[in-house]
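hey so u asked for the seq, here:
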Amino acid sequence: MQSASIPVRSDQLSIPKAMPARRSEASVMMNDADPIAGSAGPERLDALRAELRRRGLAGFVVPRSDEHQGEYVPPSAQRLAWLTGFTGSAGMAVVLAERAAIFVDGRYTLQVRAEVDTLRFQPLHLVDLPPSRWVGEMLAVGDRLGYDPWLHTADQVEALAIACERCGARLEACSDNPVDAVWTDRPPPPLAPVEPLDDALTGRDSRAKRADMAVALAADRVDAAVLTAPDSIAWLLNIRGGDVAYTPLPLSFAILRADASADLFIDPAKLPAGVEAHLGPDIRRHPPAALDAALDRLGAGELRVRLDMATAPAHVADRLKRSGARIDKGADPCQLPKACKNQVELDGCRAAHRRDGIAMARFLAWLAREAPGGTVDELGAAEVLEDFRRRGERFRGLSFPTISGAGPNGAIVHYRSTPESNRRLTTGELYLVDSGAQYLDGTTDITRTVAIGRPGEEQRRRFTLVLKGHIALARAVFPIGTTGGQLDMLARHALWAEGLDYDHGTGHGVGCYLSVHEGPQRISKVGNPVALRPGMIVSNEPGYYKAGAYGIRIENLVCVVERPAPAGAERSLLGFETLTLAPIDLALVEPALLSADEAGWLNAYHARVRAEIGPLVEDGVRDWLDGATRTVTPPSP
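ran it, structure tokens below
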């Protein structure tokens, strides 16, 4: 979009002329994900150390995770935030008697220093100096390091145990969490009601899904699978919930049997009468406290039990081993079929993206009119965008906290604006907005980078390099069996040629009214053995970030589809269908850098946006959209 040259008449826009008042709720249905209230002052760390001394522990490990290892955790499980003040989505703290450290990855190196008292918690890089190495250097012979086996996977526990053993210390599972013992005002666990999802939205009923899973388990000679990921359970049983923010999950555990029946472990207070009928008699309901006894019964029968060791809590693996079960280490059986959407789900996702495209067109038109005047700030812009989305049918909430970054804040990949960091959108700077929504029929995720006023030559050139990578991936045609890792360099090639790059993955999987970050597929430098398959939805989001200056990211969601094979082809081919429908800012495009094929893709994409979104918006927005999607002509060779 061009923010200065395309006129927009305010009398033709059904959009706000002023920014709405700030909202406190994060979504319509799902619980708020705001950090735990109150300051993470020194008294909390002191109280935890006193509790550790009482238990005879030299230290304790505090991960960001809950029992389900999910991206978002309910307020009752935000132990790391309560103790340290750090609100990022990944991290871990280790508290010893005299020292404490907090470990984060490269996304949060700036955020951790802004939120945490670094005199009490030493910030360390999760990859460069992992917690296992640090504790191995800090513990003494005979020390006991505590951990909560519900909050770590077996692989994580093994790394810590090896580090303790090497220095003569011992890793010890705690029967209850020491943080909970000193967190006196800890919120109660969430009890959001579970909602059945109609088969008209899912495309298949739960019985058919469970029958498929049972066949797959039987083929592997597995008697049962323990499901610890709530998104797998939600997909398998065609239910949704509101226990965490941004993702419609009912927190629960399940055991899927080889006869296609299942045991669901969930607080009965979450199950209204309608859900009981929806689940039916083949889904036996139990309170969460009954899980241990059920695991013991699996072991008593010496059953072969599938468990995903990469995501299951160590407690479940330990309990199965002690009870005599034969653990079949393998992927969660729901993850791959969940990722391959059926035709009903894909049609729903397309409809959700059209509604999202309407909201984005209204927002970008509003931004083109208001931002050059200097009255728009990051928080206000995010509120306006959410307000436009709320008007759409089947809207249920945001799919993640909106990243709304102006100028140098846009260079922070996982930036989250606060009243302290909130910045006005200023002429001559770039504005990056990464946002998405949950609709009953689909999940969206889109990033647009917009020039406020006239962009500089460097900004245009680097934006166009990112665009070339985005187009290369969008146009890719590849044989069946190709992984996302094999395609990643397509998105980076133009940047690499000029000595530039970005430090995040190029694409993540996306669910259907589920997690905005969904496995097992992804597109990244890091190897991933999962081949892309028809029906998978992934993001296409190359970027570039100049620290202290600006950030650039162009993100669309794409679906893996079959492509016709040319004459003489020896392999079946796949490609991508772009789902996202929103203009790419042409003020930032340098046509001279585009090939004829690249310009052709951009023009065809914009023509599709204009054709699909134009008839659905008001006259003023349509006028802006016509200009924002005008034809780009590269220079003749």
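The chain has three domains: 10-22+342-622, 42-182, 204-338. The chain is about 35% helix and 20% strand.
lmk if thats what u needed
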